[in-house]
Amino acid sequence: MSEPPQRRRQFRRMVLGGVLAIHVFIYWSLAFALRSSDDVHRVIAVGVMLGQCSLAVILATMFVSGKLARIAIACSAALACWYGISTVFYWGLGEPGAAWWAIAISVQTIVCLVGMEVIERTRSHCSTSSAVALQSGSTPFQFPIRSLIVLTTMAAIGFAVVDFGQRRGWWSTDSLNVQEGIMMVVVGFIVGVTALLCVIALASPKRHVVAARLVAVTGSVLLLAILLQWGAVQAGMDRSADPTLAVVLLGTQAGCIVITLSIVNRVSGAR
Q: pLDDT tens digit string along 165-185?
């Protein structure tokens, strides 16, 4: 009696993996195709990459039970996003732009991780249908060797990056403007909050509720974009007088997340 549901779940996971692989390929192909165009198209490319970073964290929290595995996926997505943005703006490892976007992407990843943990715990208390998040067979005090390997590897990478940046002078006030550094923290926070708003908007089985929430998300994106543009002007960042770029950045990211999560919810049968 238990074989058909188990086969169905396995088939859904295979289909879901294929859908996600196709989406990753399409999004990154679009981003790399637009990176050498004008300012608006480059901002769209950056928004796509930031959206992919947020999606990786969101989907890892939804479908991966181990916390260390979630952290490893989030760190890998952040590094991929950081590399992708470097190809758009053509900065090297020793330039201030590398540190600025490292700050923004790190904050974005942390906001998405913490926010999704809160959302998933709330879902698990309110509904018994979220079985994927509760599918861990290990005891709370188990610490397998693979978790130790993942933890030490990620820690070694983190210390290596910090040491490399310190020797290159990334963290000194001479090479990194303090106001711009603070602004990049704000950028990461706003990008992460935008991603979480999309998750909350789609967290309902009723279509009219989802539609109303998406309208609210659209208004929130506009308000956050205005705040983002105003902060960029106050920080003295270049080419920040036009609010269109901030709207395009957040709108592109939100669009990627909404499209992918809608398909994921339908394929996985979570809704």
A: 666 655 555 555 667 777 888
pLDDT digits (tens, 9 = 90+) for 9-25: 666 667 777 777 777 77
Q: For the chain, what's the residue count? A: 271
Nearest 5°: CA angle at 156, between 73 and 92? 80
* Residues contacting residue 117 through CB under 8 Å, at least 6 positions apart: 61
Task: Convert the pLDDT of each residue in 211-222 to its tens digit.
Answer: 888 888 888 888
pLDDT score recorded for residue 103: 86
Distances in Å between the Cα of 22 and the Cα atoms of 29, 69, 77, 125, 265 are 11, 22, 16, 33, 16
Longest CA span, the chain = 68
> What six digits make up the tokens of 257?
């997340």
Structural contact between residues 58 and 253, judged by C-beta atoms closer than 8 angstroms:
no
CA–CA dist 60, 73 (Å, integer)? 7
CA–CA separation, 121 and 3 (whole Å): 29
Q: 115 and 54 in contact (C-beta within 8 Å)?
A: no
| Total Cβ atoms within 10 A of residue 247 | 18
